[in-house]
TrEMBL record:
Domain Acyltransferase: 23-353
Gene Ontology annotations for the cellular component aspect, listed alphabetically: membrane
Protein known as: Peptidoglycan/LPS O-acetylase OafA/YrhL, contains acyltransferase and SGNH-hydrolase domains
Keyword Transmembrane carried by entry: yes
Domain called SGNH: residue spans: 451-678
Transmembrane residue ranges: 26-41, 47-66, 87-106, 155-174, 186-207, 268-287, 307-327, 339-357, 369-395
Origin organism lineage: Bacteria, Bacillati, Actinomycetota, Actinomycetes, Geodermatophilales
GO molecular function, one term: acyltransferase activity, transferring groups other than amino-acyl groups
An annotated GO BP: lipopolysaccharide biosynthetic process
Keywords: Acyltransferase, Hydrolase, Membrane, Transferase, Transmembrane, Transmembrane helix
Keyword match Transferase: yes
InterPro entries per the UniProt record, alphabetical: Acyl_transf_3_dom, Acyltransferase_3, SGNH
Amino acid sequence: MSVLTRSTARGVPGAGRSRRRTELDGLRAIAVTLVVAYHVSSGRVSGGVDVFLVLSGFFLVQVVSGHIRREGRVPVLRAVTRSLSRLLPTALLVLLATVVASVWVVPHSRWRELALHLLSSVTFTENARLVDEAVDYSASNAAASPMQQFWSLSIQVQVLVLAPVAVAAGAAVLRWAGWAHFARQAVVGSVALVTAASFAWSVVATATNQQQAYFSSLPRLWELGAGALVALLLRDVRPGPRSAAALGWSGVVALVACGAVLDGAHEFPGWQAGWPVLCAVAVLVAADHGGRLGVHRVLGAAPMRWLGARSYPLYLWHWPVLVLYLVHTQRETPSPRGAAAVVVLSLGLAAVTHRLVERPAGDRLRARPPVGALALVVVAALPLAATGGLVLTWLDREAARVATAADDPAYPGAAALGSPVVHTGGADGVEPLPSMSVIRDDWPRLPGATCRSEDELGWQPTGTEVCVLGSDDRPRRVVVVGDSHVAHWLPPLAAMAETHSWQVVGMVRGGCNLSTESEFIQEGWPEYEECATWRAHLVERIVSLEPDLVVSLGTRTGFGPGEESVPPGFLAAWAQLSDAGLRVIALRDSPRHVHDVPDCTARWGDTSAACEVPRSSVYTEPLLAEVEPSLPPRVSILDTSPYFCTDTTCPALIGNVRVYMDNAHVTATYMSTVRAVVEDDLLALADCALAPC
C-alpha cells in the first residue's frame, strides 16, 4: 500500500510550501493495527484498508501538485518510477520470503494456486485474480492464499501508474485547446466525476456481486477519489480548535468502532464503506488545528509515528505469516498464543524490513535516473515472475502425464472396490494419480464437447453454457443437469456415449440443481437470484431438447449421520419431467468430508484412516427404500455409494487413484474409472431409454 511507504506525511501543497502532517502517521498506525488485529482474531474486516485508499488519493494529489509546482508539468516516467521505487523493494522481499516458506509449508496440491497468485502479485493484478476466484476476504484461514493481501496494493499501483499519464494527457489537451487557465477546474471536475461514477457503480456492483466488487478496481476508485478531493478542495480549510478536535476524535473513535459494527467483508465497498472513508476524511480535515485537545497530539506521538512509518511492511508481512502459521498448525483460527506470535513476528519483520530494505533501497532507486531505476525494478521482479511461469509450465506437463497414465491397468480406480486390496488394487510400488501437484485442477469435464451460451440457443441468458457431445443425428440423447456433483458423472457418461452412440448434453451450473427450490444457497446471497432464474426455466428447456434420458442429482449428502436427504424440490422437479413423459435417473450423491482430503493425505498419507470417512457418517442407509414409494413415475434413483465406499468406509485412495480434489468434489481421473462399474447398473435401470428393447 503506497501510502504506507512515506516515512513523513506532507501537507497539501499551497503557496509553494508544505507542512509536516505527523498526525497522518498515527492514522496509518491505527489503520494497520485494526487490519492486523481483526485478521488474527476474528477474520473480520476493520475498514483500515479503506483508510489507506483514502490516504493514497490524498498523497497522490500532493505528489502530482509538487511536480507541477516545481517543473510546470508532470514527468510521467519519473512519477511512475518514484512510486515503484518506494513500493517494489519491500513487496518483492515479502513475495520472495513467502514463496520460499510456502515450499516448505504448503502442500503440493496448492502449488498451482501459489504460482498463479505469485504472478498476479508481482504484476500488481492480484485483485483481478481474486475477482476471478470470487474469494471471501473474511476467510483468513489455511485455505487462503498467502499473497492475498496484495489486492489493495494492486489497486493503488494501478492508480499511481495511470494517474500521472492521465494528468499529463489532460494537460496536453488543455494546452492544445487554449484552456490552460481552466486547469484547476478541469482537474477538480474530472476527479469529482470519476469519484461519483465509481461510487454509484460501487453501490450497484456490491448489490449484484459483493465478493467480486470487493476486490475490483472500479468500485474502489471513489475511496481514492475522496482523498484526492480533500487535497484539492479543502487544502485551505482551517476549522476552529473545537470543531477540529470534535472532527478528529470523532473520526478516530468511529474508525475503531467500524469493524465491530459493520461486516465489511460482506458489505464493502458499497455505501457502507463510507463509514471508514468519512473517518479518514475527518482526520484529514481536522489536521493539527484541534489545539491542546486535538487528536493530532495522540496521533503525532512518537510511538504512533514509529508504527505508522512501518505500517507498509507490517501490512505486507502479517498476512503470509498468519496464513502459513495456520497451514503449518492445521488450524482454522489461531490460538491466543499463536495470534500473539503472529503479531510479534510480523512487527519484527516489518521493523527490520523498514530499516534494511524499504528506506535504503527506496532512497538509492530514487537517486538514479528514472530509466535506470525502472530497469532495476523490472530486473528485480523478473526472477519471481519467471518462477511462477516455470511452475505453471511444469504443472501443465504433469497434468498431461496424468491424463496419459489414466488408462494404465495399474490404476483400476473404482474397479478395485471389488478386489481384496482396496487401497492399491493389487498393484504395489505405483505412484497414485492424479499427482498432488495437479489434483486441484482435475475437474470432471465433458471432453470433446462443443459449448454454447444459452442466448445462442434462443433461451433467456443466465450466464450458463450448454455443452454438447455428439451430433444431433445420434439415436439417443442424454441430458445431464445440475451442479458440480452432477458434473462428476460427465467423464464416464462421455465414455459410454462414444460406445453406444449417444448425444450427451451437459447443463451444469455451480450450486444449482434440477429442483424447484434452493437447497443451500440462501436468499440474499449473490448467486441466489441467478440460480432461481436458471431453475425457473430449467424444466421447459430440458423438455424442448426431447431427451431420451435425464440424469440429475438424486440425494444430497451432508457432513454427519442422518444428513443425507432427498430435497422436496428434487421430487417436485422430477414430477414435472415425468408428467412431460421423460425418463429420469437420479444419482445418489458422492461422499463429503469434513476436512480437505488432499491436505490431509499430504500430511498423513493416502491410506491414513484420518483421511477416510465412515460410510455411516455419509449415507442414511434406509433413505432410498423410504423414498421409493414417493418417486414419480419414470423416475429412479441409482445407488452410487458402492462406487466410492466399502461396507464400512469411504477411502481417499482407491485402486491407486486419489478420489477427492477437495473435501467434497471427486477427481476426473477417478470418475473416468467409474465407467467400468456404473455402466451395467445405469443401462439396467434405464430400461428402454438408452437402447432398443
